Amino acid sequence: MASHEKFHYQRLAQLREQIAALGADIALTDDLRPLLAPVRVGGLTAPNAMAVLPMEGCDSQPDGSPSELVTRRYLRFAGGGAGLLWWEACAVTEEGRANDLQMMLTNDNLPAFAVLLQQANAEAARRNGEAHRPVNVLQLTHSGRYSRPHGHKMAPLVPQHDPILDPRVGLSPDAPVVTDAYLDDLIGKYVTSAKLAQAAGFDGVDLKSCHRYLLSELLASHTRPGKYGGSFENRTRFLRDVIDAVRAEVGRDFILACRFNVFDAHPYPYGFGEDKEDMWTFDPEEPMALVRLLRDKGMELLSNSAGNPYYIYPQVTRPFDVSSMGIPVPDEHPLESVARLFAFTRRIQNEVKDVPVVGNGYTWLRQFFPNAGAANLASGSCSFVGLGRSSFAYPDAPRDIILNGAMDPAKCCTTCSKCTQIMRDHGKSGCVVRDAKVYAPLYKQYREEAEARAAQ
After folding, report:
1. What does the pLDDT look like over 312-359, one tens digit per residue?
2. Strand, coil or helix: what is 327?
3. Which of 9, 128, 146, 190 has its CA 20 to 30 A from that of 294?
4. Between β-strands 204-207 and 39-41, what pairing exists: parallel, antiparallel or unpaired?
């Protein structure tokens, strides 16, 4: 491992030199045509291989319906030219909301979602040509350990206790865990949300299983007794049952996707995908068994992630220059973090063959993202390249790549983690640097409010 450093590369040759010096498995190419190629997803075709990853704004209306900021965000994403829009986390039940303004689709607000989808598709066509119609997938979630549906008080719902994470959400060692009966009933909530998404006009849904939210933590519930814990079969039971129940209701013409952790970087027996003796060593046995399970269940779109962005190793999920407050500087170079994420995606894509896999870890590369993304696409290491924080900062990046063959360095995400800090401060999130007129005042407001709460 090398020391952490901030991005400072002005030319592609400099980045190549650093990659070579580190021995990082990252390929770069000058041929960006793979980014422009259409990608088949289920029965649909995305117009290009660039994707907006699910970026939560924590800014819906109290009833979960789209607010002005939500509408603004998705019109910007749609107009920006990406071929796949992976819409942000949408709670399947009130108590599973991560915040009191998290997106939530209900019978009452379904018309508002339908209108926004129509507006987004129209904006995509207006700015990128009548033939440009992105694939729209809605992420369905239950926040589990990180549930906070009302105000500033955490209300965690966990499938197992974790002596490392429990104190961080105010959970005592003897607090109850969610029952099998609760999980049995929750399956129907996913089905209801998927049917509503289909009725609203989405092309598919994602059963979110990453970042230590409920389904992700179930995959790691080694210490849980009963049918949802212990063995790999039991720990994957809930996800399998949700897939079967949703598919039975929505039919074959609706995309089922899954964004899932392959590596939690969390000590056994509380994490998934790590060696039992060394949490920093990836053990592929169970993650790859999960990948095969998802393939065999007929999942039509996959996206891998890793780590826990709410703990002290967020670089495992998103390499950065500067992290949120209170997070230590990693003891690895960001390019090593990028290479780890690329390796996960490559391994998964090679396993599932024709099922499209959306890769991540690109934002830290700034204007050289297209060179890495195109190289990974050309080698068959992924089917889509996904942009998360970068989409907050630079929603027009796909369009600029298509029209100009390059990204503008002055528009790129600086990986300063201020968008994450707003979320940690219980505020409405966006890019404080590149979208400063909207989000710089909000960043200041929520910082002050968080400091005032901490002082009480």
Report:
1. 999 999 999 999 999 999 999 999 999 999 999 999 999 999 999 999
2. coil
3. 146
4. unpaired
How far is residue 320's CA from residue 416's CA, in Å, rounded to a whole number? Answer: 7
Q: What are phi and psi of 142, to 5 degrees?
A: -130, 125
Residue type for 162, please? Answer: D
Task: State how far the Cα of 236 lies from the Cα of 228, in Å rounded to an integer.
Answer: 7
**What are the CA-CA distances from residue 285 to residues 274, 291, 404 (Å)?**
10, 10, 43
Q: Which residue has the tokens 């209300």?
A: 155
The tally of CA atoms less than 13 A away on the side-chain side of residue 290 is 32
Q: What are phi and psi of 364, to 5 degrees?
A: -60, -25
Angle ∠(187,191,193) on CA atoms, nearest 5: 115
Predicted pLDDT at 2: 83
List, in sequence order, the alpha helices (H) in 324-368. 334-352
The amino acid at residue 142 is H
Tell me what pLDDT residue 209 has: 98
User: Residue 1 pLDDT > 90, yes or no?
Assistant: no
In a 3-state reduction of DSSP, which class is residue 143? Answer: coil
Q: Could you tell me which of 424, 416, 431 has the C-alpha nearest to residue 453?
A: 424
Q: What is the mean pLDDT of the chain?
A: 97
Give the integer Cα–Cα distance in Å for 318 and 19: 18
Say which amino acid occupies 277: E
Per-residue pLDDT tens digits for 29-41: 999 999 999 999 9
Confidence of residue 304 (pLDDT cuts 50, 70, 90): very high
Residue 386: in which H helix or E strand, if any? Answer: strand 384-387
Q: Which residues contact 296 (CB under 8 A, 6 or more apart)?
A: none
- Strand 39-41 versus strand 44-46 pairing type: antiparallel
Dist. CA 293–CA 348, nearest whole Å:
12
The CA–CA distances, whole Å, from 377 to 12, 80, 356 equal 18, 20, 11
SS3 368: helix
397 Rama sector, left if φ>0, alpha if ψ -120 to 50, beta otherwise: alpha
CA 161 – CA 159 distance, rounded (Å): 7
CB 27 within 8 A of CB 379: yes
Helix ranges, 97-225 (H):
110-128, 180-200, 214-219
Check whether the bond before 269 is cis (ω within 30° of 0): yes
Question: Distance between CA 162 and CA 22 in Å, rounded?
Answer: 35
List the beta strands (DSSP E) in 36-173.
Answer: 39-41, 44-46, 50-52, 84-91, 103-104, 135-141
